[in-house]
Amino acid sequence: MTVGRVLPAGCYGYHDIMAGDRIRTGSAHITAELIDNFAELSGDRYAIHLELEAARASGFDNRVAHGLLVLSVVDGLKNNAEAKLLGLVSLGWNWRFEHPVLLSDIIRCEMTITRKRIIRSNQRGIVQIEFDVLNQSNQRVQCGHNELLFNL
Predict the structure, then answer these.
(1) CATH assignment of 10-29+66-151, given 3.40.50.10490, 3.20.20.190, 3.10.129.10, 3.30.420.40?
(2) Contact (Cβ atoms closer than 8 angstroms) between residue 21 and residue 37
(3) d(CA 65, CA 105)
(4) pTM here?
(5) Tens-place pLDDT, residues 5-16
(6) Cβ distance 125 to 109 under 8 Å?
(7) Of 40, 55, 67, 146, which is least surrounded by CB within 10 A?
(8) Is the dihedral of CA 32, 101, 51, 69 positive or negative?
(9) Which among 6, 146, 14, 16 is positioned nearest to 76, based on CA atoms?
(10) How many CB atoms lie under 10 A from the CB of residue 147?
C-alpha cells in the first residue's frame, strides 16, 4: 500500500478516497463519568473499572476503561473527524486491545484507508479502514479495522 494524502476537512464519498489516504481525528478525554456511565449502560461493573483500589491491586496506576468503551469512543472520533466519510453503515470491526486505557488518558486515532471494493449487484462499495488508537504518550493502545458500506 502506498501512503496517500492526509485528508483535509470535508465530506468524502466512495469515489473521493483511495487506499493510502489518512484521517487524523480529534482527541477524547477518558473521564470517570464516561467509565461509570458505560458500566451502568453495559452492566460491566468489574472492579478494576470502578474502584481505584481494585485497579491498583491488579497492577494498574488508575481505574481501567472498558475496552469496548474505548472502541465506542473511537467510533465517535471517526464520525466527528473533520474529514468525514459518507458511509451508510458499519459492516463490522476486527479489533485488538493492546494496552490498558486508564482514567484521565487522552486518546486519538490515526486512520488509513487500506482497501476498497465495489459490490456490483447493488451499486455499493466497501471501504476498509485501519485504526491506530494512541494515548497522550503516543503509545498505541488499541488497533484494528472497520469496514464501511457506501453508496456509489
Answers:
(1) 3.10.129.10
(2) no
(3) 9
(4) 0.93
(5) 999 999 999 999
(6) no
(7) 40
(8) positive
(9) 146
(10) 18
